[in-house]
């Protein structure tokens, strides 16, 4: 005999917008991202550290490879759907010279958002027109954020800041590089989100050099069945 039940679970609707700094347009900027539909949904942003250009190293290579590795490893059994383990494995697999800040969020279908952050990329959670949660930047000193690097003296996933937040239908997640949060006030973010219910449309109204991801949480009904032996 089979027993069927339907249970509500959360999923993400995602919009992405990237505006490179005018001096970095030719190479597409130094930020990178990935979005995955695996389980409840996974999102990440990495911001390549521009100081590497002084050593004739393209700062975008490290951030792009880091995100490519994270995307490839997101369903790896050793990651165990944990932000810290995914950051660690993606960092270990990255061979390009350079460094990057990173923020990564994983949604559990039951309504838990797990966040890992190294540096000054950020995430804000909005509910009913208010910011109810925000990550805090990690810096050694002004304009010198924590960062993952090809150099052994930099930070690792062990230095990351981790958060677990309960989310619900209708919540909006705003995630981005420091270019977003350094230049757009909280009340401006709230205004844009409340005026434009479509996440892709909301992204288009952020006219500053940055990479940002807007996500809105929706409920879907999951068909769960179990086999009962009698």
Q: Structural class of the helices, strands and pairings?
A: alpha+beta
SSE order: EEEHHEEEEEEEEEHHHE
CATH superfamily: PPM-type phosphatase domain
User: What are the low-pLDDT stretches, counting only 5+ consecutive residues below 50?
Assistant: 1-7, 220-230
Number of distinct helices: 5
Number of strand segments: 13
When the domains are counted, the total is: 1
Radius of gyration, whole Å: 18 Å
Beta-strand level of the residues, as a percent range? 35-45%
Main pleated-sheet profile: 6 strands, antiparallel
Protein name: Protein phosphatase
GO molecular function: metal ion binding; protein serine/threonine phosphatase activity
EC number: 3.1.3.16
Family: Belongs to the PP2C family.
Structural features, described:
This protein has helices spanning 59-73, 83-93, 178-181, 186-195, 199-203, and strands spanning 2-19, 31-36, 42-48, 99-108, 112-118, 122-127, 130-134, 139-141, 144-145, 148-149, 161-166, 172-176, 210-227. It is an alpha+beta fold. It has a single domain, classed as 4-Layer Sandwich (Phosphatase 2c, domain 1), CATH 3.60.40. Helix 1 (59-73) crosses helix 2. The chain is globular. The termini are close together. Mean pLDDT is 84; it is low at 1-7 and 220-230. Belongs to the PP2C family.
């Amino acid at each position: 005999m089979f027993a069927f039940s339907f249970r509500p679970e959360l999923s993400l609707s995602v919009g992405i917008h990237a505006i490179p700094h005018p001096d970095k347009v030719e190479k597409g900027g130094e930020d990178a991202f990935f979005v995955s539909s695996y389980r409840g949904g996974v999102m990440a942003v990495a911001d390549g550290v521009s100081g590497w250009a002084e050593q004739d190293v393209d700062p975008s290579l490290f951030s792009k490879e880091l995100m490519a590795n994270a995307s490839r490893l997101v369903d790896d059994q050793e990651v165990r759907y944990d932000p810290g383990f995914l950051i660690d494995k993606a960092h270990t697999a990255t061979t390009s010279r350079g460094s990057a800040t990173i923020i990564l969020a994983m949604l559990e279908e039951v309504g838990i958002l797990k966040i890992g952050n190294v540096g000054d990329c950020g995430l804000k959670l909005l509910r009913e027109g208010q910011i109810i949660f925000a990550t805090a930047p990690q810096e050694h000193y002004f304009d010198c954020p924590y960062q993952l690097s090809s150099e052994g003296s930099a930070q690792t996933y062990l230095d990351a800041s981790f958060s677990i937040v309960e989310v619900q239908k209708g919540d909006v997640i705003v995630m981005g590089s420091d270019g977003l949060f350094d230049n757009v006030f909280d009340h401006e973010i709230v205004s844009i989100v409340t005026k434009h219910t479509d996440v892709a449309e909301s992204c288009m109204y952020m006219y500053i050099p940055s990479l940002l991801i807007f996500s809105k949480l929706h409920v879907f009904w999951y068909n769960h069945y179990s086999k009962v032996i009698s």
